[in-house]
């Protein structure tokens, strides 16, 4: 896939727009669109970091498609916990994919941005907590299933990140890979906001950026323990239609 | 000994905000200001959602006083690009 050029765009870099937790339904439809019409002048790709809908219904997914499809840049999304609420995640994925939005779940996609191959691997992720305060696959079946779900997603996200054939890598999740971008949230709910398992696989591959949402009261900027830049783009955190991150990159030598 | 009558109201309100299908908001903070008086703060995506939250909370907790500080999240274009 290739993207359209953005004006005033420095050479040897990619510009990534991102927002999460837009929670679109019929009452929100149309609010984002005016700010998206000129996105091609500001960015090369738009990432949607989950919680695209409120109740996770097909009708809400069609609202998301109306709001975010047919832009001048490719749109890449992961789903969030709200998008699973009605057990219609497969229907939502199909509606979004049919509209031209790429939906990632433990998978990746590569775009050609003016000679720089931008690779994005994405997954919803899940909770479990962070260093010293995390759950384990132990005890009741429900507890084991909880952490196993996170571990499985993290492992497969790691594989998807590793397998990207590209010059610049980005990890896209809904749940957080580091506690640093949760600052502002109550400490007690950190285990429901992310997991060190996501951070661990991110640090094994060291992408240029890790983007997530989910933590509405968190902080935009942080790093993983391994030093990967992390951005929490939950809409109530960034307080604008999307944020734009510029990442330097060199095309691979021919 | 005087017993608080609202000891579980914060948790009940937090669950209503998430689990009542008319609301389904996880990003609203509930704080107890004084006995039987609570504050709801945070940001929602539309004025309609703010109206529904106030309506549902009034319906579910008619005996409580609730102060609202709910903003509508802005959706303007970004002015800046951050170099990562």
Automatic annotation (TrEMBL), chain A:
Source species: Planosporangium thailandense
Entry superkingdom: Bacteria
Key words, A-Z: Hydrolase, Metal-binding
Name of this protein: Metallophosphoesterase
Calcineurin-like phosphoesterase domain sequence ranges: 15-217
InterPro entries, per the entry: Calcineurin-like_PHP, Metallo-depent_PP-like, Metallophosphoesterase_sf, UCP008292
From TrEMBL, chain B:
Domain of life: Bacteria
Protein name according to UniProt: BON domain-containing protein
């Amino acid at each position: 896939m290739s993207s359209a050029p953005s004006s005033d765009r420095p050479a040897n870099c990619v510009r990534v727009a991102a927002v999460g937790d837009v929670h679109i339904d019929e009452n929100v439809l149309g609010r984002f669109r005016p700010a998206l019409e000129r996105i091609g002048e500001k960015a090369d790709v738009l990432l949607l970091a989950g919680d695209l809908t409120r109740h996770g219904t097909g009708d809400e997914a069609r609202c998301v498609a109306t709001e975010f499809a047919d832009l001048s840049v490719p749109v890449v999304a992961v789903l969030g916990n709200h998008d699973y609420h009605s057990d219609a995640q497969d229907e939502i994925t199909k509606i979004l994919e049919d509209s031209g939005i790429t939906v990632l779940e433990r998978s990746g996609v590569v775009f050609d941005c003016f000679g720089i191959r931008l690779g994005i691997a994405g997954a919803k992720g899940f909770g479990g907590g962070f260093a010293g305060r995390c759950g384990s696959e132990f005890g009741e079946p429900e507890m084991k299933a909880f952490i196993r779900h996170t571990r499985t997603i993290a492992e497969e996200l790691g594989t998807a990140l590793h397998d990207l054939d590209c010059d610049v890598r980005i990890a896209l999740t809904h749940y957080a890979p580091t506690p640093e971008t949760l600052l502002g949230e109550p400490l007690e709910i950190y285990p429901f906001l992310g997991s060190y398992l996501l951070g661990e696989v991110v640090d094994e591959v060291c992408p240029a950026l890790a983007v997530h949402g989910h933590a509405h009261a968190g902080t935009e900027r942080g790093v993983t323990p391994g030093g990967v830049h992390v951005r929490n783009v939950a809409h109530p955190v960034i307080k604008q239609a999307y944020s734009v991150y510029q990442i330097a990159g060199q095309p691979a030598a021919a | 000994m005087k017993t608080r009558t609202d000891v579980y109201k914060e948790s009940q309100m937090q669950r209503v905000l998430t689990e009542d299908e008319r609301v389904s908001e996880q990003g609203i903070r509930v704080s107890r200001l004084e006995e039987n008086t609570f504050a709801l703060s945070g940001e929602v995506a539309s004025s309609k959602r703010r109206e529904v939250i106030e309506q549902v909370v009034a319906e579910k907790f008619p005996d409580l006083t609730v102060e609202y500080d709910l903003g509508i999240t802005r959706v303007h274009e970004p002015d800046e690009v951050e170099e990562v």
